[in-house]
Amino acid sequence: MKVLLVGATGNLGIRLVAALLTHDHSVVAFVRSPNKLESLLPISVYRQITVVQGDAKDAASIKKAILDADCDAVVNTAGLAALPPWGKSDLPAIFRAVLNAVQDAGSERKRPLRTWFLGGLGVLCFPGSESMLSNYIPIYREHRQNIHLLKSLPPNTNTVDWSMLCPGTMPPESSEVTVPTKLLHGKLIANATTPPLWQDSWMKHIPLIGKLVVCAMNAPRYETTLEQNADLIATDLESHESPWSGRTVGVIDPSK
Ligand SMILES: NC(=O)c1ccc[n+]([C@@H]2O[C@H](COP(=O)([O-])OP(=O)(O)OC[C@H]3O[C@@H](n4cnc5c(N)ncnc54)[C@H](OP(=O)(O)O)[C@@H]3O)[C@@H](O)[C@H]2O)c1
Ligand SMILES: *[C@@H]1O[C@H](CO)[C@@H](O)[C@H](O)[C@H]1NC(C)=O
């Protein structure tokens, strides 16, 4: 597919450039600074992509980039959620702009764009309940308003075919970006709505703190690498019908 990658200079962004090229997608990178992107990528990789300069809070320029390049898909990795519950970042404004751009472009070309957004582990639900993990561990809560925005889209609008990847902590495997990628840690296991392979415990029944304790016990198990998550998105975009459409997606590294 032809993919508009918003936020290509970020930790996940540069690895997505490599993963998307490895999976035979065309990449249009939407960044604030083409110079920065050039400095982060090997020249042989930089030459394989198209670069558009713009601000990810500006829906009109994102929409123009989608339509000008005739993209079929969008991946947004721009913006970084604030950690403390009172923290504020640009992520919500970026998220709204990308969503508006994708919807407008989708209605103009009369076909919804396949779109991956990034969330975090905290917007997945505690297995067996509808309550998000971030109700128990209140960090990175800015992702919550983003998922609410997606879930509140009118059901039959059909202007965006979205998924939200919700990883835990993502350290890098390597600081080197190569095409083709070398996946040192293998493929992830994914599941919609709840974290895959969750370890349940009787402790969840302890009043007040039970679920918090179970979340804290499980959370470290969901550390995956940036490269693994980039590969999951690039692999998914190879199929025309994704099992993850309209879902939040949790991931775990089965080799750990
Ligand atoms: N890293 C983790 O462990 C982790 C875990 C779970 C979820 N997440 C989520 O995954 C996403 C990506 O994380 P990351 O670690 O790759 O973040 P990051 O390295 O901080 O990258 C953020 C990117 O956003 C771009 N950006 C910020 N404001 C922009 C604007 N107004 N216009 C255009 N670009 C803008 C930055 O561009 P510049 O280079 O120009 O600054 C940078 O490329 C985030 O939403 C994060 O909350 C991350
Ligand atoms: C995926 O989620 C479903 C429903 O929440 C659950 O029944 C199933 O066991 C989960 N699969 C994995 C691999 O965790």
Automatic annotation (TrEMBL):
Residues 1-19 form the signal peptide. It comes from the Eukaryota. InterPro entries: NAD(P)-bd_dom, NAD(P)-bd_dom_sf, Polyketide_Oxido-like. It comes from Capronia coronata CBS 617.96. Residues 7-173 form the NAD(P)-binding domain. This is NAD(P)-binding domain-containing protein. GO terms for molecular function: oxidoreductase activity, acting on the CH-NH group of donors, NAD or NADP as acceptor. PANTHER family: FLAVIN REDUCTASE (NADPH), NAD(P)-BINDING DOMAIN-CONTAINING PROTEIN. It holds the Pfam family NAD_binding_10. Keywords: Signal.
